[in-house]
Amino acid sequence: MTRLGLLPLALGALTACGSEEPPASDPTGIVVVTFNTGTTPGLGHDSSDDGYGAAEATLSDLHYGNGLAWRAVVDDTRNYLAQLAPDVIGFQEIFHSDDCAAVPDAARPGFVCESWQPGDPTVAQTILGQGYQVACHQGKADKCIGVKTSFGRLAGCEQDLCLDFLDGKPITGCGGGSRVGRGVIELAAGGTLTVVNLHGNSGLKLSDTECRVALFAAVFEDFDGQPAASGERNVVLGDLNTDPGRNHTFDASAVKWNEHVGPGKAFRMHTAVGPDVLPTYAGNFNIDHVASDAFSGTCVHPGATPGSTPVSPIVYFDHKPAVCRLR
Fold first, then answer.
1. Does 4 or 157 have the greater pLDDT score?
2. Alpha-helical regions (H) of 36-176
3. Cα separation of 276 and 30, whole Å?
4. Using CA atoms, how far apart are residues 5 and 161, in angstroms rounded to an integer?
5. Average pLDDT of the segment spanning 10-38
6. C-beta separation of 135 from 145 below 8 A
7. Is residue 227 domain-resident?
8. How many CB atoms neighbour CB 282 within 10 A?
9. Is 7 buried (19+), middle (13-18) or exposed (0-12) by CB count in 10 A?
10. The pLDDT value given to residue 28
11. In the predicted model, is pLDDT for residue 242 greater than 70?
């Protein structure tokens, strides 16, 4: 869940940038998605006409960490992703099914825990289906990367699910586990693709901002002696919890991001940024982003982009995913 304050919009647009075209040997036509699958208590849940009302939202908050766990929405998401068939997807705030062991029986009806048994697929595996590998952050099973196995496989991950697997860097004072996860995909077509999934700390207090500055520095400056995004080709995606196109006049973490991503920089934005672009979070901000140093392409946000269809008709997600077609 994200808690961005509604602060004044900054002046000056930041637009999607370009660099040299990727070499012809690069993969073409890949679909890359970032999706914060969390929900917010009270988000459109005044009635329970669709089965998910205020009572269910309260249970989600108390027992499911507001991660994707309502079974009807899980089904809708699985159907949506089956049609989309993304090559790479980064998740934030996705419920980890093994946590069902601690959920009381009274809080299970309608949720994935109602029928859960030890050893069942995780929610991430369930919505992706067969033909995907899932690997998660160190100490953060609610943040994962999914890779279509016909596209490639995560180096070192020998199973369909690899928990606590992605290279990480916990940041002191910024919560447990690692909010950044790096995986190297060995591409079926040859070569590698490094994917960095991140979930910035939420809030606009100085401590929140400093945590995001440290997170973005790990991605672009020093992760383990070199940037996390320092592979042959790199895609950086996730919920930044800041808006680089609107917050750069008052948020040092937006400034840090823009030092490395934007016109004339090594990384280009594929998701739109700027004070006038269509907001995809809370009606005011754009915080879910995809950037790379080796691709061109643009993104849509299902349920926000005009003419697009939401992932689920149930009012549940507080973020709109970014679906990017890159070449």
1. 157
2. 54-63, 71-84, 123-128
3. 28
4. 36
5. 56
6. yes
7. yes
8. 14
9. middle
10. 57
11. yes
Strand partners for 196: 182, 236
- Assigned domain for 322 exists: yes
SS3 state of residue 70: strand
Residues 17, 265: contact at Cβ < 8 Å?
yes
Q: Find out whether 291 and 19 touch, Cβ atoms under 8 Å.
A: no
Q: Is residue 96 part of a domain?
A: yes
CB atoms within 10 A of CB 47: 10
Cα(137)–Cα(125) distance, integer angstroms: 15
**Rounded distance between C-alpha atoms, residue 306 and residue 142, angstroms:** 30
Domain count of the fold of the chain:
1
Boundaries of domain holding 123: 30-326
Query: Any alpha helices (H) in the chain, and if so which ranges?
Result: 54-63, 71-84, 123-128, 206-220, 252-260
Largest CA distance in the chain: 56
> CATH number for the domain including 175?
3.60.10.10
Q: Nearest Cα to 239, choosing from 196, 274, 303, 204?
A: 196
Which structure tokens are listed for 56? 């269910």
With CA atoms as reference, report the closest residue to 284 among 257, 247, 236, 312.
247
Q: How confident is the model at residue 42 (pLDDT cuts 50, 70, 90)?
A: confident
The region of weakest confidence among 19-33, 52-66, 167-181 is 19-33
Q: What would the two tokens of residue 23 be? A: 């070499």
